[in-house]
Design goal:
Elements: H1 2-15, H2 19-44, H3 52-68, H4 74-96, H5 101-121, H6 123-126, E1 132-133, E2 139-142, E3 145-148, H7 152-174, H8 177-187, H9 189-194, H10 199-225, E4 227-228, H11 235-248, H12 254-270, H13 274-291, H14 295-318
Antiparallel strand pairs: 1-4, 2-3
Helix pairs in contact: 1-7, 2-7, 2-10, 2-11, 2-12, 3-4, 3-5, 3-10, 4-10, 11-12, 11-13
């Protein structure tokens, strides 16, 4: 699956040089990583966090401010965004985890709304509703020479490298002992505590890890669109990643990756207006919860379970 997807995306710029289609591919890869950050904290650790868009926006602003105010590079901005978001995730989680699961959701939503309010009102720092325009294209320096990702094709391959590394790191984490610990805590906290697992510490780690990938995704996204403003905290982004994770299947990896690519590409191909797109995301989310609660991963598991049963029935009939 990894080799197939990588080969397809490597071939895209050779098949088309259209900025429109390359932009769709860039958005698909960034939003897939962004949705996977929600999958870490919600699908694997069992914490429905609506703060992911907050970290996505915080990472965007931190990276933009490092570049525009401190004359840093985009890579320094992304590192700063990851560090600030991880610290914020631990701080918010340390407070919210003392509450019930329902209260945790409300606190995470309030965090996102608070960040949006700060972006609008802290004019001296964020430039208010006008945002921070004119963000420069990322570049890599090699001594006296440098390479700038100024064209859509160059930025496409930069995003492909980012998505490949990010998804590779996430896959290594969720398939390791860390991922198994997350799933154990999600299914039975009491049993986890009885086995000596420090549940709160592992939950904080899941929140911090998810906030890092959300912040990195947001930082890369705003440097492609060359502007960051308070709309980066819009509820639209929450809808998108929720739909991706639920349709893919909570706590699954490849189904969420496939879902992320499809959910971000299909609306662009169908060319639906933004208002209708938000309504369609809401309808898809409701239908997915009612008709396909386990997502694509659940359907795949059902097919896998039916095959041994059909083989066993065939063997019995033959005997």
């Amino acid at each position: 699956m990894a080799a197939l997807l990588l080969a397809i995306f490597i071939a895209v710029p050779f098949l088309t040089q259209s900025p429109y289609f390359l932009t769709i591919g860039i958005s698909a890869m960034i939003f897939t990583v962004f949705a996977m950050s929600l999958n870490i904290v919600y699908g694997y650790a069992g914490l429905l966090s609506l703060a992911q868009v907050g970290f996505w926006g915080v990472g965007s602003y931190v990276a933009a401010l490092v570049v525009t105010r401190l004359d840093g590079s985009i890579w320094e901005g992304m590192l700063a965004a990851a560090a600030v978001s991880a610290a914020g995730g631990i701080l918010i989680g340390a407070v919210a985890l003392r509450l019930s699961n329902h209260a945790f959701v409300i606190v995470s939503l309030c965090f996102t709304l608070l960040m949006q309010m700060l972006a609008q009102e802290w004019i001296d720092l964020t430039n208010g509703p006008m945002g921070i325009p004119g963000l420069p294209a990322p570049g890599i320096g090699f001594g006296e020479t440098s390479f700038v990702f100024a064209t859509p094709t160059h930025f496409f391959y930069l995003t492909l490298a980012f998505a490949t590394i990010s998804l590779g790191v996430i896959w290594l984490i969720v398939t390791s002992r860390i991922g198994r610990t997350f799933r154990m805590i999600k299914h039975d906290e009491t049993l986890s505590c009885s086995l000596g697992v420090r549940v709160t510490v592992w939950k904080l780690f899941a929140i911090a890890l998810a906030s890092v990938f959300a912040a990195l995704s947001g930082a890369l996204y705003v440097f492609y669109v060359t502007i960051v403003d308070p709309l980066i905290f819009d509820v639209y982004y929450t809808q998108v990643i929720l739909v991706i994770v639920i349709i893919g299947g909570l706590g699954s990896f490849w189904p969420v990756v496939v879902s992320g690519l499809l959910i971000t590409v299909l609306p662009e191909i169908l060319r639906t207006p933004n208002e209708l797109r938000m309504i369609s995301y809401g309808v898809i989310l409701v239908l997915a919860v009612l008709l396909m609660p386990t997502g694509i991963a659940g359907l795949v598991n059902k097919v896998r379970m039916r095959r041994p049963m059909s083989n066993a029935n065939a063997a019995e009939s033959s005997t």
